[in-house]
Amino acid sequence: MAVDIQNSVLEEIDRLCSGDDLQSVVVTADDVANALSIKRNTASQYLNLLVKDGDAVKVNTRPVRFYGHKALVRVLGVRPDKGEYASVQELFAQKRASLDPLGQVIGAQQSLFSQIKRMKAAARYPGVGLPILLTGPTGSGKSYLAKMFYNYCVQQGYLSSDSQFVHLNCAEYADNPELLASILFGYKRGAYTGADHDSAGLFDRADKGMLFLDEVHRLGAKGQEKLFEYLDNGVVSPLGETKSSHHVQVRLIFATTENIQSTFLQTFIRRIPVQVEIPGINDRTQFEREALTKLFFLNQAKHVQRTLAVSKQVLGILTGQHYDSNVGQMKNHITLTVASALSKAGSLGDDDKLHINVSDLPAEIWRRSNAESEGTRLKLTGDSSTVDISPAMELSELIDDESDQDNQIRQTFRRIAENYQHFGLNDMFLGTSSNLINALTDEMIFSEVIDRGEVPLNLLKKIMKVKLDSLASDYSVEFSGNGLVIIAYFFYYRQFSYWMLSAPDHALLTKISDELASVSPRIARFTDEITKMIETSLSLPIDVVDRLFLQLYLQDAVKINRDNAIRCIVLAHGYSTASSIANVVNRVIGKQIIGYIDMPLNIDVETIGQRVSDYIASHSITSGMILMVDMGSLAGIHKYIHGTIDFPIGIITNVSTQTALVVADQVMHKKDIATIVNSTAAGIKSDGRVIYPEKVKKNLIITCCNTGIGTANQIKSLLDTSFADKLDVVVNAYDYRRIRQEGQIEVLKKTYNVLAIVGTVDPKVKGIPFVPLEKLIVGEDSELLQDALGSVANSKQIDESIKTILHNFTIERVINSLTILDASAVMDTIDIVMERYVELAKKPLPNSKRMALYVHVSCLIERLIRNEPIMTYDWEHSQCDTKVLENLKTALSVVEDKYSVTIPKSELGYIDDIVEG
């Protein structure tokens, strides 16, 4: 009942706010109560609940007004940044801010953040601002950004609305500097032959406006020098002028695709103080690429005047593409995709949607996908859902707010304040706050890093390392291995996630900080020193949010220093599994013996190795290190540790509090690393071993494929997963042709002990056994691999590895590796096809034929999506039965419907060979 009332209130407020002139609309609790025939206090109660849930906004006027959140987004063009406002003017001031042309550029809050910030600073500089040089690859949007910069200057009042934006492509006059000079500065009558009248130049046309010189690198040295007079003195001299120059007021913006240092005169570059690099589309964030994709589809919807029902798979593929020609290539791909859909759709009614499917994508995308490696190959999920894009839409309706990520810090501290009001300063508050801080730091570190801070992340890391090392030395403490990284990330993001606290919020957070300082004075001292360093060294503003973050984070990050005993680290997946084990053991022992590294559940072993490497780099380790891991798959973690390791590393699997307690006790009693590892592993029936530093040849298995390195990489990935840490073997992918080159194997043998080659085609390398991929799939010829591994492992290890290989090299995994399709989705579809066929044919399909159909139909779907069907079949010698073909056609209709393809009769012939053969 309550939910129904709340939904009714929301529908009513949305109805009342459906107009465009929201600023003059007054929606009160009385209006809603009268419309829904409910009591005023009931309406007020549910309106305030909508405000709390983010579905409405409240303005504390008299009477109090309410606005629907969706209506405000539509009218303002941005999301309201809070739920309550003091006045209507404050709320709708956001609309004026949303008109900022530079703020509307895709990427303004992400990869173009610092660039736009510098451009705005250049615009604000007194006089005609500062000249700007835009650099970046062709098609990255420099011309568009220059025009938006002009619009911004007009919007801010730096230029009048009737001022000129004059654009010149310098490449057109690169070989004629005198002609260029006459175009830029004008000329006087008689300045040269044919100059029979005075003519104004572009600087005069752009007076009190803006001049954009594109491809400015084509000016050459003489052309650049001709600009010095204006850049130095603000005056220009027409060609043939002998008396005096004249002043003009022109804002200058340049653009180039070339390297600044090697292409321009240094005297020219020194006169352009603001140099802004625009990243290419491949270097833009995932959010930005998706937004650009939707923008170009929206433009197409407006052009063809049809609603486009765009498959989410299409959006994903276009967003994930690598574009050699930047934005222009993406735009062309989308234009061709819409054109293809139009050609297939035939005549459309006015209300018909134009469906954009994967098969409409240009052939170039499929060719590129087929040639590229694992990291860039396309994967189709079978997701048939669509995004409707109508001509009447605005881009803001299709994309999320860019600044949502920046609000993570704000939301975290809002919840910390709420927890304090609920719990006070007790263990429950400290525990929940610690969880919130850890979640925030995970979000910052594991999300896509956006290069937009005025102070670069790497500089913050270096400065933070110096400071934390100094604190560790001065106070006889040490910080957790990634402490400097986490603090650096926080202050990096704070550069563009800074907000003015309200008086009540400031008072509450200050109270929390003061109470923490009274119970943890040492942490408060560390906080004071770090914030002072940031203020003095980097001139970044510091407030109570920064202090409170450091106080809460350092509670868990600071540990008492130890002597040079064996270092012990718990590595465990989960939010705080490792830290919980370490904290319990250290409290029981009474000393900080056990360190920890908490790991996200989806972290890969290379990243774990990097974290251990970072720990080693920041600690002095002489007697050795014991890694206690929670999974057997991490038993080979030492292979992923970088740098020079000149001490033994002990590894114990299946870590528990009991394991860590036993290890810590023996470390305290000065036992050697081998004794600790072996006795602990034996006592708890776990695996344990010690790896000593030594230089030996690594054992190598080669993977290859005659169609390219991509498939070889896929086979490598499957073998890596199969071997995991069971065997001391490296698997590397090599190009088939490279392996066949004379002497190539001998080069590899100098570094590796080459055991075998696994692939699709035998490169016929003398003395090295070849294991065909298809044999692994059906479980044959495994003895070849067993023989190859016999020299590096015992029979038990080999048997376990072979079992894992036979499990991993299933049809599903192989399809997923060798095609663009999502194996699980396509196999489900093929299952339906086979069951339909069995039903129609009234006879079963043997498992061998089902296996063959999984592979064949998967590849068939891929061929059809690429528009590369096999159109020929030897019907003359075929014994295909017409009824069988009809049954196959009917059964396969599910494939045609799901993937928007048509299966030609020739392809049915090949399927008939499998079914009836």
CATH topology of the largest domain: Rossmann fold
Helical stretch count?
Answer: 40
Shape estimate = globular
Number of strands: 24
What does this structure look like?
Residues 565-692 form the PTS EIIA type-4 domain. Residues 821-917 form the PRD domain. GO terms for molecular function: ATP binding; transferase activity. This is Sigma 54-interacting transcriptional regulator. This protein has 917 residues and is an alpha/beta fold. It folds into seven domains: 2-95, Orthogonal Bundle (Arc Repressor Mutant, subunit A); 102-279, Rossmann fold (3-Layer(aba) Sandwich); 282-400; 407-559, no CATH class; 562-691, Phosphotransferase system, mannose-type IIA component (Rossmann fold), CATH 3.40.50; 698-809, Rossmann fold, CATH 3.40.50; 816-916, Orthogonal Bundle (PTS-regulatory domain, PRD). The protein is built from 40 helices and 24 strands. The strands form seven sheets. The protein has a five-stranded parallel β-sheet with strand order 5-6-9-4-10. Helix 29 (709-723) links the parallel strand 21 and strand 22. The protein is globular and about 95 Å long. The model is unreliable at 373-377 and 402-406 (pLDDT under 50).
Looking at this protein, list some descriptive labels:
Rossmann fold; 917 residues; 5-stranded mixed beta sheet; 5-stranded parallel beta sheet; single chain; Arc Repressor Mutant, subunit A; alpha/beta
Quick overview:
51% of the residues lie in helices and 12% in strands. It has 40 helices and 24 strands. Keywords: ATP-binding, Nucleotide-binding, Transferase.
